Amino acid sequence: MNDLLFSQLSTLVAASVLLFGILLVWRRSLLAYIKVFQWQSTMLTILFAIVAYFGNDPKLYWIGVLLFFLKVIFIPRLLQRFLVQIDVEREVAPYINTATSLVLTGVMVLLAQAMTNPLIRLITLPTRNGLPFAVALIFIGLFVIITRKKAFTQVLGFLVMENGIAMLAVLGTFGIPLIVELGVFLDLLMGFLVMQVFVYQIQGTFESIDVSKLNQLRY
Amino acid sequence: MMIVFHFSLLLSPPLLAALLTYLVRDYRRWVGWSNTILSLISLGAALGFVIRVLVDRHIPTWGLQLDGLGLQDIFRVDGLSALLLICVTTISTLTLVLSPGLGKKDDFSDRPLRQYYISMNLLIAALLLATVANNVGVMWVALEATTIFSAFLIPFKLTKASVEASWKYILINSVGIALAFVGTVLTYFDFVAIAGEADNALNWSVLIATAPRLQPEILKLAFVFLLIGYGTKAGIAPMHTWKPDAYGESPTPLGAMMSSALFAVAMYAILRWKAVVDTAIGHHYTDTLLLILGVFSLGVAAFSAVQTRHYKRMLAYSSVEHTGLICLGFALGAPGLFAALLHLLNHTLAKSFMFFVVGRIEDRYGSNAIDRVRGLGKTMPWTSGLFTAGLLALIGLPPFGLFTSEFALFRAGFSLHHPWLMVVSLTLLAIIFVAFINHLNHMLYGLTPAGVAIGETGNWQLVPLFLCIGSLVILGLTLPTPIALLLNQIVTTIAS
Amino acid sequence: MMQTLFLLTICAYSLGALGAILGGRGQLGRSLVGALAAIGATAGLLLGLTVIFTGQSFTAFVPALLPVGGGLALRLDPLGAFFLSVIGVVAIPASLYGIAYNEIYESERGSLRLLGAMFNLFLLAMSLVTLADNVFTFLLMWEGMSLTSYFLVITESDEAETIRAGNWYIAVTHVGVAFLVAAFLMLTGNASGAFSDLRVHASNLSPLARDLVFLLTLLGFGSKAGIIPLHVWLPRAHPAAPSYVSALMSGVMIKLGIYGLLRVALDFLGGGPAWWGVLVLVVGSVSAVLGVLYALMEHDLKRLLAYHSVENIGIILMGIGAGLLFHSYGSMSLAVLGLVGGLYHTLNHASFKGLLFLGAGSVLHATGTRNMEEMGGLMKRMPWTALFFLIGAAAISALPPLNGFVSEWLVFQALLKGLNIPGIEAAIAMPLAVGMLALTSGLAAACFVKAFGITFLAMPRSHEAESARESPLLMRIGMGMLAAICVVLGPGAIAVIPLLSRILVGLGGLAEVPVSLTEGVSLQVPTSSSQIALPTLALALLLAIGSIPVILKLLRVNFRLRRSESWGCGLTELTPRMEYTATAFAEPLRRVFAELYRPSKELTIDTHPESKYFVQSIAYRSEITPWFDRMLYTPLLHLIGYIANKIRRLQSGLVHLYLLYLALALMGLIFASRWIER
Amino acid sequence: MTNMMSYGLEIGQMLLALALAPGLVGLVRWLKARLQNRLGAPPWQPYLELRKWLAKDVVMSTNASWIFQATPYIVFGSTVTVTLLVPLIATPIAFDAVGDLLVVVYLLLLGTFFLALAGLDAGTAFGGMGASREMTIAAIAEPTIALSISGLAIGSGSTNLGQILTTTLTDPAAAISPSHFLAFAALFIVVLAETGRLPIDNPATHLELTMIHEAMILEYSGRYLALIEWASWTKFLLFLSLLANLFVPWGMATLVTLPTLALATAAWIGKLILLASAIALLETRVAKLRLFRVPELLSLSFVLALLAVTSSLVLK
Amino acid sequence: MPTLLQKILRVGIATEQLDLAETDVVQVVRQVEAKTRRLLGRSLAIREVDAGSCNGCELEITALTNPLYDSERFGIHFVASPRHADLLLVTGPVTRHMEVALRKTYEATPDPKLVVAVGDCAKTCGVFKGSYAIAGSVDRIVPVDVFVAGCPPEPTDLLRGILTALDRWPKS
After folding, report:
1. D113: which chain C residues are within 8 Å (Cβ-Cβ)?
2. What percent of chain D has pLDDT over 90?
3. DSSP secondary-structure letter at C242?
């Protein structure tokens, strides 16, 4: 009974995390991206709490709190400040238009299902049904990085991918060892900051954050 | 207790050096010397580990028995780690010796220089950490950190090109390394599914012990993620695309670090994981994947080398080539592994050497376009000699070490009945060879462009470079017993 | 004794190299470097001769060096000793010659050091190739030889042409090495790589693998030997190198390709099916004929000689091919005949081609040009060089009683005996080979009439030729030594050939009791009554020629002689421009073989702007592009360029694409992993 | 056969060949004159020419070197050596062991080589032209010679002249094989080329542009000219003898007795006269070929020789 | 081939037989023959030099070699190079252009040698006398042994001239 509830809840929340990922593909405004990411991170925090509660793993609460501060409060704030500074609002036309992107997103979800299907049959964890969503989210993050032209959006895509990985970890293993988890967060933070620095530098040197213009180095 | 001291002797000097650089503001020469000396301490500690591994015949391990943190046996130095430690510390010492700051006054201002030293030392620390970490998760964390620190260093001169290169570098590598984390998580997930949750589950020693019971399906998937992830870091084609940009635009010492030490550690990570997967499901699967990527890398490198127009990018393609070769070696059983590790060692030495030489050329000519460098032989006779020697070493000519290791590698390939694969590889190597000789000749001869001074400067820098090429020759003609013992030990533990 | 000689060889060369790096300039430095090389070469020659005469192998093993490849293993058996001796034969004169020749490099800084060092190292590497006794040692020395010779080729690096030549050379060489690595490693398999193990392992290989090894070997060593179409580097590299280096490269280095082929095909693989022999024969025939045909069209003296190396390698291979063919049919004594013919031609070609290159170098030294059309009249200005060159030219044209004739005779005899081999392939291949060999020697004679006649005879065609002076003594000594060898090896064949048949003993199961090709003063073909007695013939010829003036004197014939201008049909003045040029000399043959040469023609006539009937100038250009350049190398380079262009688009500069590759690789491998069994 | 006798025979046949050579050429000239409805010079005219040349001075070009002076001796000496090697009236001879058919061919090539050099030595265009043409034709005639030799060698298993003759003598049936005829035809064409007869070269021409052999020796005079011409006449005799003896050896002495030798000499001279007549007739009939048609003729001879060899291989 | 042979047989020997009629010509010819035999071993090589003639003389000289006269039967023949010649047959007034050529031809001929100047022009320059293009008669250029008069001289005259020249052949 408990396991069933656990399973249902975790799958539901995982699905909502994925949903926000898909929303990211749909939206065009940069500000909306930040909002979407914020909501997604919130859902992820909830997922952590659910797993911590049902899985009897108090360590995950702490991680959840850390996650909340980092991804729901700190990073979005930094991103918003950046948007104010550089005064850009919209993503330029991506390499693949929104409609096709959404279709491809669907395909990726199916792909993730197909890929994780054999794995799910191997294990008995109650959270296993959420695994495809995690993998799909990773793919979507990758997809966003590949198809969006603004450095800013790529950073967001990367963050979404990170969310996917975190979701994979929490669903598949109820959290990896703490020391690793802490290291991952540190790296994430550092990585994000470095990327942010570079986005500023790109803005500074190229007077635009359109990465498709960074194509001088070839061959 | 001794072990802790030893580990801290290894890991703390770069951190200390970074701290010192941060604190000491004006006296740059002092910074240079202190960094060099501290890096020598690391080097000494690394040698100490080699002695421990070889002479004492045990595997130094250290960790904290604290619940929930996963710190059990977190540091572990077996033969493979010892080998990598030697690579990393040697190259880092060389890098710090040849970094700007030592020697003549140059035109770098203090602020970027300080930033440079801090990042460089942190990069070295991360590399050392990745090497000694028993926990594959920590290893991942350290490797991710290397991306971050090195990304700081690429736009040292803040040109458009360097910003572009660093963006590509950090984005591609972050994505790649994230995928490697997916692989790590998948394995852990496998482990947890089989053996239940454990704090030390991500310790390599534990993983490899548990490996026979792990589920092949998941491991197969995990290894793909790991291979792509760490392969991005190592620059296996087609994930190599950041290499030419990053190598081409980064300051010379960083190029040396990235192309040798960083690359070596990335390959080390792949090898660690390969060992785990092989123990679980046999080596055929990983071998096949590595062979595919290896030959693909060789092909991409070969044809890219033909058309390249910048000599630093040329070195990047050379790295892709050697990545491919080492991948092949990893996939060719015990003799292949031996050859690949020897090749890794040789390549580390040769490639970093090459970057320093190229740095001298770039300083003089002010461009890294092959077309702009003419008459090198007359302009800088010694440097051009070293450049020629280094390039010949890189394309696998005797009497340099790479000839030996490539030979051993191909021998392994032929003895394992992969003749066609080997023939294809040999053909691709021949193309690379011809392309490089062409570029080399283009640079060596002709008339020095106007405005380029003639004659050598900074001659003291030649001394370490000659030492470098000298060791390559020694490695070509003989194999010092410690290295032979170390390699044999690694081969017996990893490819048993 | 052998130990001492060996150490002396190594030490002399090493000291020579070291000395060249440290000093090596000035009269004394050059002499020292050259003398050390000569000492090394002499010691090597003596070592080789000792092994040949005693039949005892010399071995040395240093496990500490090259441990990865199984240690530095050296063993000099008679076959290797023969080639070591060949090295000595050319290297001694070349070193002495080089001392004087190198003076022209004094003015350029630095290159003389490199030249001296690389020269000594080149000789060392070549010597060690013949000594190598395991795969790794062999390949190491082989590569060392190629690399050092590459540096020697680009000695005159201030010329773009030289660099291009160097590129061609090292490229082809390296591709050859790739073939060799493949061949040797297939042979090695799981064995240790020691040559003794290879012999054992080779017998366990499947027939297909053996064939493959053989083909790879032929390609690999053939590229060094200069078989067509892998010869492209020869006519480019030889002219570019200093002349005495060309002498060594052409006289000796390419022969090591023959050594390798014999070593692998005969020694390791122990011979093979008949088609191996036929293939070698065909390759040899084609190389011989095409080599000489392209030589005929050359007016660059050294390039002409280089093409002749292709030709002579062809002749050597014809002998060896016939030998392999007989070997496959089990007629061992005839196999010895063919192989000895090839080997003897190897020695002979080393001596006369060495001589000719030294002669060409002497001419180059005196006139500063390699273009024959700017020479002429050197006979009177450089009498010694002319005499030596003439001897070389006569020897390479296979004129009796010089050495070239003897070996060609042997090869002919082998081919003629090959006519008795049953089977339609032999019935077609053998007569053609006979015809091609004959055509080759005829054309070679024509070519050397051109080379000698245009270069040395008649009037000087340029100011440089007019003011040419005889070369320094050391250069003449170098040439004189080789000329003497060319003369001696003719009648002296009866002494050398038994040794040659002895060095083949034990290779590929050739008879334990060596087949004797000589009987008294005559060379005797086994299982046939064909024979020649060169000493008698030489004596008869000498007597016949020498007695004529005596007899004429006895007959009190008119011996008055008056010198007058050449008869030019009453021309006011016979100028050098009226002389027959090299181009004109070769024109009939160019027309005869026009189908092969396919010369491009370009005729431009400038007329006066006022009237088209006033011709102001007529320019005629005709060029010959060898077909292998056109058919093989140009397309190959284009293909590589095409692929490279495609591949380079990968690096488009767009980070999105880069990430897409990453994603695709991930997807690809995930799907591939499904299909990979464990 | 004792040594003394055999060496005597050698010297004898050498002298005989040298003595008869001018006469043979005179005979051809005489026959040709008769066929042109002329009276012509008597067959012994060449002897008279020789005597005159030997009495005259030599004029030598100032451009020429010692090659020019040495060449007549080398050409003559090598031809003399060849006369020792070719069995003319008896077989086997002592020099069978010294040289075979290949030696004969290459010794003659030695002469040609130096003659061509001498042609270039004076620096005139004619000499160069002659040298160029001579070497061209010599080179492309070479394969046919070699193949004809092979054809002969297949039967006897040897290139040794004595051996070939003995084989044919003991097995006459072999001589009537198609390959024998083909080889004969091939060699006949080559002989025309090598000895400078029509249709390849015109020995009587005065027109420099059509010359081959003559163009090379335009510079020679006096005794040098005598030696060169004598050598080339001897070469002509030798080639005819080879044709005669190799394909129709009957009549040759196999024992050295006076009657057999006398008979053999008679037979030999008879065969030579027959061949000379054939050549005279041919030279009357045909016109000289354009120089660049010559290779075509020679390739025809090559094909004939090739067919000879392959057919003998296939039929064997 | 058969037709050719038939024709040869039908024509027979076209050369004038010397013993048919003891004419003046025949006597001369016999003398020539005897003299050449004595002096030159019956072999006389002639090099013809056209030093600017109107080619009338050449026509007659050519006639010497035709089947009718067939000078070859006496051992007289024409050669391609002065190096091979014993006698130079010079025709025409020596033009300026041929002056050097003639002198060189003479130089090129080995000793002993003879020069026979053929035709009136060779002696007097004939109608070309005084022309700006003329260098002078043959004897102004090279030593002449015999002049043969006539415009053009008949073959018999030529033979006679040669005969006279042979009288001057140096005794060895």
Report:
1. 394, 397, 399, 445, 448-449
2. 31
3. -
